[in-house]
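Sequence, please.
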């Protein structure tokens, strides 16, 4: 019978389109999708200091309450062919059941309402029913999300969420369902004093500060301490279920490790892809895991055996590493989805991926002088992997559009290319007695000055659109840093300008930004080299402007400086220098903003 139900289900899925708000029993969707969307939505409203009102709707014995006539109606309305409706009707027409207990079993009972329990077809039939019943009341995801009968309704105002809840109640109860008054709960993010509560038909809905949504605890204050404790508890519950195997001394450590990885660890990692864990919370999970492994291997702390040996014996890796793997796997899952997917539209990444730690690095001189240090930014490993994935998607789009003069951070190019080209130009000019006027331009703190608004415009011009551009912007919109000196740390502060230091994506973004400046300052004569004219050589922010006369070079420099100024950059007059290669000794006076650049030999 179950095989026949599978066949019918496969046929129905081909002809029925379920709304995007339904995450339950849908292909390529899971509880993680819904949990992630809800957590991100709440996090955004917390960051913006705005209220978000959520109602978690519970339906009473929903599988057992679905009226059969309503089921046939919803199937027909969803476009199911009549022959398949008759097939399902035949399954339900003669349905019988018995109650079996220790003293025997009852006579057969006729079942005339509800869906079959344990049926392979029932979950999809229920999805069809919920899809049709909610057609007039549901909003787009993530404001309305359903996982089978678990419904979340979100809104920016209490009055609106109360109105939406009443509309849902009316739509469901007029078709045979019933909303549970005792289990439906209300939660508010950034609640203000006197904001009140939500009522359902005059009855006050229970107000909570946390809710267990699809097995994951969501807190209104954004903390995840209770979720971590829940994961530890779930791990111990799973461990006790298989303790007969794990504590059996006749079973090898390798087999115990396999049982642990399959039966216990998934319970501890469930839903953690959507949570930003602190080091202390990650440590709590790893301590619990090591206790389980020591119990399983019959080892105590008194035996003085290192944790690495315990893990190696059981062939079990660190739980923190597995959590990061799960996050990256989840990120890949989101990246492969279509642009309309909820997680893409949420347009954000975990906060710790966008967080940097600035530490001082000593250069030279007196260690007591602050100016002898420079700050470097350390980023999280998952955030770097995420940035590398983005870089591999951005580079193929922008690489064909970047000019040949740019050799910085490009494949098969380097500093030797620029040095060789410059030396060949100088040698040829000297040989043919052609003067060359050069300006070595230095930009002040170029990486830290890039305006992000202009950067997004440049990326759009260079072909980076849609979800990919949103992913890059998300990484920068949430960027923040703290300063760490020895064991002391500053508070987190947002970073609104410049590119992220130490990020694999930043060099590509920077050369695209510089390429636009270079293009807009083109039209210059330059110097002749064979059949070509070269007006500039660029390696990231190191720019060499070339001209055959001082007047042309001043014109080129003025135009380049103006484009830099328009793009939010600034030419350093103290570090930029002029040089002339001529058989006659000629002075080259270059000015930027009224300041004269030094001439060097």
């Amino acid at each position: 019978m179950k095989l026949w139900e599978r066949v019918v289900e496969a046929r129905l899925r081909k002809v029925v389109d379920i709304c995007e708000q339904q995450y339950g029993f849908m292909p390529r969707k899971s509880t993680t999708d819904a949990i992630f969307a809800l957590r991100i939505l709440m996090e955004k409203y917390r960051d913006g200091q705005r209220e978000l009102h959520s109602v978690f709707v519970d339906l009473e014995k929903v599988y057992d309450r679905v009226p059969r006539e309503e089921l046939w109606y919803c199937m027909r309305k969803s476009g199911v062919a009549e022959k398949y409706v008759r097939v399902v009707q035949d399954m339900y027409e003669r349905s019988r059941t018995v109650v079996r207990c220790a003293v025997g079993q009852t006579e057969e009972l006729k079942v005339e309402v509800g869906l079959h329990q344990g049926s392979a077809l029932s979950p999809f039939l229920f999805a069809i029913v919920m899809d049709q019943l909610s057609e007039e009341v549901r909003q787009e995801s993530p404001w309305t999300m359903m996982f089978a009968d678990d419904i979340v309704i979100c809104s920016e105002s209490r009055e609106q969420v109360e109105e939406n809840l009443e509309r849902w109640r009316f739509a469901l109860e007029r078709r045979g369902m019933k909303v549970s008054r005792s289990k439906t709960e209300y939660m508010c993010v950034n609640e203000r004093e006197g904001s009140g509560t939500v009522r359902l038909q005059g009855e006050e809905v229970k107000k909570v500060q946390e809710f267990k949504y699809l097995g994951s605890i969501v807190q209104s204050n954004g903390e995840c301490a209770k979720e971590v404790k829940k994961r530890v508890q779930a791990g111990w519950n799973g461990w006790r279920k298989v303790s007969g195997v794990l504590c059996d001394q006749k079973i090898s450590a390798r087999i115990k490790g396999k049982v642990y990885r399959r039966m216990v660890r998934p319970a501890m990692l469930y839903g953690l892809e959507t949570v930003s864990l602190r080091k202390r919370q990650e440590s709590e999970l790893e301590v619990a895991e090591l206790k389980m492994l020591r119990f399983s291997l019959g080892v105590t702390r008194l035996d003085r055996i290192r944790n690495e040996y315990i893990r190696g014996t059981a062939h079990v890796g660190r739980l923190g590493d597995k959590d990061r793997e799960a996050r990256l796997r989840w990120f890949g899952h989101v990246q492969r989805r279509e642009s309309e997917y909820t997680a893409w539209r949420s347009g954000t990444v975990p906060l710790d991926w966008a967080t940097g730690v600035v530490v001082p690095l000593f250069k030279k001189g007196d260690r007591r002088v602050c100016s002898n240090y420079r700050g470097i930014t350390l980023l999280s490993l998952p955030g770097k992997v995420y940035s590398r994935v983005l870089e591999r998607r951005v580079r193929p789009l922008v690489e064909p559009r970047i000019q040949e003069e740019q050799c910085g951070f490009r494949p098969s190019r380097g500093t030797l290319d620029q040095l060789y080209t410059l030396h060949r130009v100088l040698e040829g000019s000297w040989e043919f007695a052609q003067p060359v006027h050069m300006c070595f331009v230095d930009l002040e703190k170029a990486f830290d000055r890039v305006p992000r608004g202009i950067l997004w415009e440049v990326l759009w011009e260079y072909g980076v659109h849609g979800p990919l551009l949103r992913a890059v912007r998300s990484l920068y919109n949430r960027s923040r840093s703290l300063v760490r000196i020895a064991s002391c740390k500053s508070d987190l502060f947002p970073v609104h300008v410049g590119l992220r230091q130490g990020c694999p994506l930043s060099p590509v973004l920077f050369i695209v930004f510089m390429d636009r400046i270079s293009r807009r300052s083109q039209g210059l004569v330059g110097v002749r080299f064979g059949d070509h004219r070269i007006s500039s050589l660029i390696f990231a922010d190191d720019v060499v402007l070339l001209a055959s006369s001082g007047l042309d070079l001043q014109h080129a420099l003025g135009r380049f400086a103006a484009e830099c100024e328009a793009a939010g950059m600034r030419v350093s007059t103290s570090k930029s220098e002029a040089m002339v290669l001529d058989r006659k000794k000629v002075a080259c006076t270059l000015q930027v903003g009224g300041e004269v650049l030094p001439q060097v030999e």
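Residues 2-196 form a domain with the Alpha-Beta Plaits fold (CATH 3.30.70.270).
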